[in-house]
Specification:
By secondary structure, this protein is mainly alpha-helical. It has helices at 10-20, 29-42, 58-64, 68-83, 90-102, 108-119, 121-139, 145-148, 156-163, 173-184, 196-209, 215-228, 232-245, 267-280, 298-305. Helix content is 57%, strand content 0%.
Length: 315
């Protein structure tokens, strides 16, 4: 799968990203660590010395980055770096805004973060909920989205139907899916009202990609699916993971927001590896009909989509 930025555009992209983080004394250690993870794992330029790359201001970035797709992808990485600055910085947000204007790019991610700084968490949460709702059908399990996109009260019939996937046998995707809930002491979708069609798909993705539902694991899964298929739905899902687990910006269902997750030991490396693994996949399983594959061996599901070996540490 494409690495988001063509090989010849990696250095200009890095220059733009360094320029975007050049506020309040320069990029933070965490921002540099995340950028190194992107450069090394997603763009496969481990030899590139960040200290030797000249930061590009917004106008220079616009001259170097001419294609709409490469501009979009660089802006995505700017948003990732933006939420990795702690404490949150109005100067950082304003700096990224200048790049977005020069690169003629806008998006829900920029609006959420700008309103967070200008108007507070409540307004940013409203923005997020509105944008997320637009992508929710795409992010939901195809065979369930018409009936279970949202439910007003628990549906135990759905919960029992999902629990029966455990009977498919120890090697199957369905068995591993239910084991994921049991291992992590998570309620099966349908047993509560939290958008069950979405969580079936999301948690199937956890199982196939091989990441646990921790803060680092959620961010890694978001990076994995974005590198696998950089579409609008996967991007807003990655933004969701970042604003919940990295920015500590908003609560989503029962998930408690956390800040600076990527400063934890091994978290940046996990994200970098996830970006590389997602880019290696030969097809996108993130919005597949997972329930139709529940009886397949998990190993065969991964082989079907070209998923690389699961790392020993998964979050």
């Amino acid at each position: 799968m494409p690495r988001m930025v063509a090989p010849e555009m990696v250095e200009p992209a890095v220059g733009a990203l360094l320029g975007a983080a050049d506020v309040d004394g320069g990029p933070t250690d965490e921002q540099l660590a995340v950028l190194r993870a992107v450069v090394t794992n997603l763009w496969e330029r481990a030899e590139l010395d960040l200290d030797a790359v000249t930061p590009l201001d917004p106008d220079a970035a616009a001259r170097e980055l001419r294609g709409a797709q490469e501009r979009r992808r660089v802006m995505e990485m700017m948003v990732v770096l933006e939420v990795c600055r702690h404490p949150e910085s109005a100067d950082q947000v304003a700096r990224v805004e200048r790049y977005s204007q020069a690169l003629d790019h806008s998006g829900p991610d920029l609006e959420i973060i700008r309103d967070w700084i200008d108007q507070g968490t409540a307004r940013a949460t409203e923005d997020f909920d509105r944008f997320y709702a637009e992508s929710l059908p795409t992010l939901s399990e195809p065979s369930l989205r018409d009936t279970y996109l949202r439910i007003e009260e628990p549906d135990l019939e759905l919960a029992q139907r999902l629990q029966k996937l455990h009977d498919l046998g120890p090697d199957t995707l369905g068995y591993a899916y239910i084991e994921f809930y049991r291992r992590n002491k998570i309620t099966v979708p349908g047993a509560d009202v939290h958008t069950p069609a979405h969580y079936v798909s999301h948690d199937m993705n956890h199982v196939i990609a091989g990441y646990e539902p921790t803060g680092p694991g959620e961010i890694a899964l978001g990076g994995f699916t974005l590198a696998m298929n950089d579409n609008d739905a996967n991007w807003i899902q990655f933004v969701a993971n970042l604003v919940i687990h990295e920015a500590g910006l908003l609560r989503h269902g029962d998930i408690t927001p956390k800040a600076a997750t990527l400063t934890r030991p091994g978290a940046t490396e996990l994200l970098g590896e996830a970006l590389w693994r997602g880019a290696q996949c030969t097809a996108d399983f993130s919005q597949a009909d997972h329930l139709s594959m529940a009886g397949w061996a998990l190993e065969d599901v991964r082989a079907h989509f070209g998923v690389p070996d699961v790392p020993a540490v998964t979050g």
